[in-house]
Design brief:
It is a single chain. This protein has 471 residues and is α/β, with parallel strands linked by helices. The chain contains 15 helices and 20 strands. The strands form 4 sheets. An 8-stranded parallel beta sheet has the order 9-8-7-6-3-2-1-10. A 7-stranded antiparallel beta sheet has the order 11-12-13-18-15-16-19. The protein has a 3-stranded antiparallel beta sheet with strand order 4-5-20.
Length: 471
């Protein structure tokens, strides 16, 4: 009988022979491996759908998430507009806008139904606390700067905050006409140090389309639990919320992110963030067909991304709820939480972007892996086939179709005929030998502010403040 050590060694050797380096997340700075799941308000704020942004309009959305989605999605994330937009308290600390939210009260409500509270911040302090202008750059080497981070993090913890989204980080966050500080990486370091001092688990996510060079990737992975791979996914229209073109752009950027991460690290140490996903609402709101919504869900799961919804959860449709509650899909997400998928081109095993493509998550030491086959070209039907060699594995496997609820055994590969926008996800374990055969449906087990910040120019101030007051 082969020991686990021998089997593991054989799997590693066979994967190496096939040119596959397994992508692994490991533990992130907040001490967990599974990315957060929930909802973020910007998906509805961006185009004005949620124009009256306050506790009375947000709370019903998160309440419906708690009931309709059976507690599987916990984060209730407040984006731009929850805080006072032009000044802090007497010590320059961030204040919640009491005309919109009673933040401690809201946190208690969420925690009472096993949910989490998220808030949004941007780099720098308020220049109005300095010279009545806008925002200012922090001097990261000044001791009072860290004291500012510390006091804000403690206040957040006291309010009941569980998650912080830190936006407009650089290098990254490109946008025409924007004048951002060229390097604000000290911001994420300061926030993470402050979070550790609170003694509370607070997840830190940074945005957007961040620099992937080794110099900065080292900083992101050491201090952030997730990092955005692309710009905002929304259309910035009231409806539809998103477009298929934006989905494809995001997945193309994820491909670049995972290829960079694999080339740099054996253990990545942070999750990718693909922005909010649109799965719960019908096509008239999302702009996506049911097949496209399923493809979004499959890919957000496969990439080990945060599963944060952008939908109006007071108006879900039955198909969307069924997708989001699917136990096999959520179990797959637990697996991919540590094994983000990477592209494996059909016919070559390459890592390029293809209109019809294959992806693999894992394999784990036991040989288990998840494979995704996808047809991104909406112009027609295509058969997408990937051999086990293409995927970078070998042997015999029993593979379970996560959504069709059917199983097959294979020692050759996987194939699916897919309409445009469709995809399929298989969970494969080492199993029977022989060719590819379909079997009966079965499921697997489931100080003074003047001393430590300096005035930036009006470009940065106006751009960031516009988002702060966009709601």
């Amino acid at each position: 009988m082969l020991t686990n050590a021998v089997v593991t060694a054989w799997l590693i050797a066979s994967a190496a022979a096939a040119g596959l380096k397994v992508a692994k997340i490991g533990s992130t700075p907040d001490g967990t491996t599974r990315p957060i799941r929930g909802w973020n308000s910007w998906g509805l704020q961006a185009g004005g759908y949620l124009s009256d942004f306050k506790q009375q309009t947000v709370q019903p959305i998160c309440d419906r998430m708690a009931t309709d989605l059976a507690g599987n999605y916990q984060l209730c994330g407040l984006d731009s507009g929850w805080s006072v937009g032009d000044h802090g308290d007497d010590n320059g600390r961030i204040l919640y806008d009491s005309s919109r939210f009673d933040l401690p009260n809201f946190a208690r409500h969420l925690h009472g139904q096993n949910q989490l509270l998220g808030v949004y911040v941007v780099p720098g302090a308020f220049i109005k606390d300095y010279d009545n202008f806008g925002r200012c750059y922090l001097k990261y080497d000044h001791p009072s700067t860290q004291a500012w981070f510390d006091s804000n993090a403690k206040q957040f913890a006291d309010w009941g905050v569980d998650y912080i989204k830190l936006d407009f980080m650089t290098p990254g966050s490109p946008e025409p006409g924007t004048n951002l500080r060229s390097d604000s990486s000290g911001e994420v370091i300061g926030w993470q140090k402050a979070i550790k001092k609170t003694g509370k688990k607070i997840t830190l996510s940074i945005s957007w389309k961040l620099d992937r060079s080794r110099q900065y990737f080292d900083i992101w992975r050491a201090n952030a639990d997730s990092m955005r791979v692309d710009q905002d996914i929304q259309t910035y229209k009231r409806t539809p919320f998103v477009s298929w073109g934006n989905i494809i752009r995001t997945l193309q950027n994820y491909r670049e992110w995972i290829n960079a991460a694999i080339s740099l690290y054996d253990t990545i140490g942070t999750h990718p963030n693909l922005d909010t996903m649109y799965v719960a609402n019908s096509q008239d709101l999302t702009g996506l067909t049911y097949d496209q919504r399923k493809t979004v869900f499959i890919h957000w799961i496969g990439t080990s991304a945060e599963l944060n919804l952008g939908d109006d959860l007071t108006k879900p449709d039955a198909q969307g709820v069924a997708l989001l509650k699917d136990k096999d899909a959520l179990s797959a997400a637990d697996f991919t939480g540590n094994y983000p998928m990477q592209p494996r081109n059909p016919g070559s095993g390459g890592s390029d972007w293809k209109s019809q493509n294959a992806w693999i998550s894992g394999p784990s030491p036991s040989g288990e892996f998840i494979a995704v086959l996808a047809n991104y070209d909406t112009s027609g039907t295509a058969t997408v086939s990937a051999s086990l060699s293409d995927l970078g594995v070998s042997g015999s496997y029993s593979c379970f179709d996560i959504f069709a609820k059917t199983s097959l055994s294979t020692s050759s590969g996987l194939s699916a005929t897919l309409k445009g926008g469709q995809s399929v996800m298989y969970r494969c374990t080492r199993g029977s030998s022989g060719g590819t055969t379909t079997t009966t449906p079965t499921k697997p087990p489931t100080s003074s502010i003047r001393n430590w910040c300096s005035a930036g120019d009006g470009g940065e101030a106006s751009h960031i403040e516009n988002k702060f007051h966009s709601s």
